[in-house]
Structures are given as structure tokens and as C-alpha cells.
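Proteins fold. Shown next:

***
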Amino acid sequence: ETVDDGAKALEAVGRKMFSVLMIDWHMPVKDGLEVVKEVRSFEEARMAAGDRVRPIFIIVTILADGIMRA
């Protein structure tokens, strides 16, 4: 699933469990760091409920020069 901003990413994670999330650091509305912090909170609640599935976060930024930075 693809979304175009951080708020929509959080909505998607709230609806569905993903095994991998690829999150751009510089998303509009909420940046990647904000999204990761909130998803980690969801994850802690799921773990407390006995769910053992943990998403893996990959934070990627592609700069105008084409060089990838994390």
C-alpha cells in the first residue's frame, strides 16, 4: 500500500498489520520520525495484548542529487 503523507501512513497502520514499512523521512503532514514514534506506540500496545508481530522500519531519504541518506 502506498500513501502520500505521514497522517495517511498512520491511518493505514491503524487498519492493517504490515511486515515492513518504508517511510520517507521528509513526508508532508507528519514527518517520518513522528510516524515511527507513533507506530512504535501502537506496536507496544499490540505486544501488551499478546501480538508478537513487529513491523520493521526503513527510513529513506533521496536527495535532489540522487544520493540516499538515512
Observations:
- The chain has a mean pLDDT of 78.
- The radius of gyration is 13 Å.
- The longest helix spans residues 32-48.
- The chain is about 40% helix and 20% strand.
